[in-house]
Amino acid sequence: MTRAVRKIVHVDMDAFYASVEQRDAPELRGQPVVVAKRGARSVVTAASYEARVFGVHSAMPALRAERLCPQAVFVDPDFARYRAASQQIREIFHRYTELVEPLSLDEAYLDVTRPRIPSPSATETARAIRDAIRAETGLTASAGIAPNKFLAKIASDWRKPDGQFVLPPHRVEAFLTALDIGRIPGVGPKMKARLTAMDVHTVGDLRALGAPELRERFGRWGQRLHELGRGVDERPVQPRRPSVQVSSEDTLREDLPLDALTPHIERLAAKAWAQQEKKRPRVARTVVLKLKTADFRILTRSYTPPTPPASADEVAAIAGALRGRVDQAVASRYRLVGVGLSGFVDGRCTAVQPSLL
């Protein structure tokens, strides 16, 4: 029996935070806007397309952004306004389908196989959604339309900003063949370097490798690469995904040694615990410590105790102990610290198996 073809739309807002700032302050329109606090400790949250021309991008140190684009207009982030705009956009999504899977404030997957509002095609549905977003929020969005989530996400980036790209089933193989391997979600610089060393530069090159070889080299991820190289992605759109992680992190005012992080860990553990309390009866099993070194390397350590942590103090104690698993020189300094909770389970369950991560 032939499987019914899904119609998936990936909607991605264009330079969302910076666009909200430009919408709300007309004098910023056409200007290179950088959403970030100025200063040596700050990083870029978002950059307008005018700023991106100069090489500015999110997660970049603010000082570097200022050097690349001296005329940039820096604006402090205002997440309350961004969340309000995101909620308005999600309400628009739900007019067209109940199958909406938000990925962040500015992007989501929509399954429009059976839309709530009659439409001749998924292409027209995506266009109607983008038109509604523009009319009601003053913001623009790009969209990718494809048979699955993997392809829709790639397609949404194809005609940015303020565009959409359709990838029907019969064009998938030809489209993927010449696609740079780095365009596959999850293939970062290190993985791309490993694949390049195997003379794999395009998805077509990847497709030429057999699944056994990919599994031998990369394990489960190798099997996933094999599937993606053929455009296969069976993941459904999940409207109500359970929490994967809650966390709180801060960039410190000055770089600190490992043994000076205790008060920051305690404070951030309390914040992460407060977020978890809102998820009851689901509770987290795993405590995660995140650190960023003075030279911007990110380190994470995690531990899953035999029973879920029962208080913020216990979370802080575990996160503090995880510092002992940070194998760095004693003289190392850290610019960011974070505490997270993950591995959520139903707190009403009586049996939880212990695990080390």
From TrEMBL:
Keyword DNA repair among record annotations: yes
Key words of the record: Cytoplasm, DNA damage, DNA repair, DNA replication, DNA-binding, DNA-directed DNA polymerase, Magnesium, Metal-binding, Mutator protein, Nucleotidyltransferase, Transferase
Reaction(s) catalysed (UniProt annotation): DNA(n) + a 2'-deoxyribonucleoside 5'-triphosphate = DNA(n+1) + diphosphate
Localisation per UniProt entry: Cytoplasm
One of the protein's GO biological processes: error-prone translesion synthesis
Main location: cytoplasm
Entry annotated with the keyword Ubl conjugation: no
Record NCBIfam families: PRK02406.1 (NF002677)
Residues flagged as site, Substrate discrimination: 17
Organism: Salinisphaera orenii MK-B5
Quaternary assembly: Monomer.
Role, per record: Poorly processive, error-prone DNA polymerase involved in untargeted mutagenesis. Copies undamaged DNA at stalled replication forks, which arise in vivo from mismatched or misaligned primer ends. These misaligned primers can be extended by PolIV. Exhibits no 3'-5' exonuclease (proofreading) activity. May be involved in translesional synthesis, in conjunction with the beta clamp from PolIII.
EC number: 2.7.7.7
GO molecular function: damaged DNA binding; DNA-directed DNA polymerase activity; magnesium ion binding
Protein family: Belongs to the DNA polymerase type-Y family.
Ranges of residues in domain UmuC: 8-188
Active-site residues from the entry: 107
UniProt remark on cofactor binding: Binds 2 magnesium ions per subunit.
Gene Ontology CC: cytosol
CDD domains to which the protein is assigned, alphabetical: PolY_Pol_IV_kappa (cd03586)
Protein name: DNA polymerase IV
Organismal lineage: Bacteria, Pseudomonadati, Pseudomonadota, Gammaproteobacteria, Salinisphaerales
Required cofactor(s): Mg(2+)
Binding site for Mg(2+): 12, 106
